[in-house]
Design a protein that fits this description.
With 471 residues, this protein is an alpha+beta fold. It is built from 16 helices and 19 strands. The protein is globular, with a radius of gyration of 23 Å.
Length: 471
Amino acid sequence: MHALDRLAALLGPQGFAQASDMDRWTRDWTGAYPSAPLAVLRPATTAEVSACMAIARTEGLTVVPAGGLTGLNGGTQANGALVLSLDRMNRIRDIRPEDRTATVEAGVILANLHAAVDAHGLIFPLTFGARGSCMIGGVLSTNAGGSNVLRYGNTRDLCMGIEVVLADGRVMNLMSALHKDNSGLALRHLFIGAEGTLGIITAAVLKLKPKPLAYATAMLAVPRVADALSLLNRLQDATGGAVEAFEYMPRCYIEGYLRHVPGARAPFDQAHDVNIMVELGVTAPRDATPGPDGTVPITATLERLLEEMLEEGTLLDAVIARSEAQRREIWHRREVAGQFSYNVQPLVDTDVALPLDRVADFLDRVLPAIRELDPGAEELVVGHLGDGNIHYTSLPTRDDPALKEAIRERIEDVVADLGGSFSAEHGIGQSKLGTMRRRKDPVALDVMRALKAALDPAGILNPGKVIPPPD
């Protein structure tokens, strides 16, 4: 029987798609990486994933795993390949409130997990704008970050165990819920962030955290980025590390937000160059229980610190959310970044990480460096300032591939000179393959290629992604 007939028989009409039934898998969120898959496989169990991979391995068919298709770097483009979608594997198998863990399948949508654990007074703290459509397998495969990395870490830090189907169809069970398990190599870390090039993550054991009893959320304006970092450290010291989010939105971002988002409102009456969204979250009743005057202690702590900084001149303006609606408006201003930033064309988007005390240097140096190549270039910037992750988008004056690649290299130069990384949380996919070849340690690339060859000797898992071929 032809391989596709075997796969169709294995998965049934709900699990196998071709022709027009594949439409939703032919483009990703960016629209920049259209796909023409051979077929779409939608297994409902790990056993079916295993059987699909065994057939693909035998027949020499390439397989591209797919989740919510919200990636930004072309990691799920699948021309002439089988797309293996995990969307039907969407069960939350178990929530253990006392252990503070959740066991979930790879197709669980992040927002659905948030809702499920909320009923137990817990949170899965990974959050970003695509949470309503991204899936757990995808966030693990890219080691996604988001706005709460400052306090809780990225996806790798929130994962205790995984189940993985290898290229030959074997299932590796690493579904540990142990906080300590020093039994050999930490294999799960090979697959988290590998973008489906080494194996297909089908399930995971995730860490849960107590749901904050109260939040204090505010928009702040400071004179300089250095003042923002001083504010962050003072907030952490005053609250025992309660800062959950510390987001950077400079003037250029606010202007873009006001220009492109219907109904958008400016955060302050006066425009400022350095705008920060901060959120504190507390779980102790002493910090969350309103006093006789109705003031929540964590909010009072924030107010006192901001008053001190206003007097010192290191804070220019502040708006504190006084209701959940005001808090959501503040968050919305940050979370719509992707929705409008990709509407501005042409662009060169980057996702860089820097030591916290070098972020200001990067922001001072990068635009002048780009303007040596393109004097009229502009920029659109937003970032997770608390962990040093800046989403820097250059807006060149013309859609010239050579110019855009030169700009990308110039940004890389500045990042490297400051001891940073060219990739913080969006993964590599295809768009950063050139950067990987230029900037990654050559020995590290050789080790990556050796691991790929050992785990996927036929090269059928998500080929052409993450690891550049040797020169």
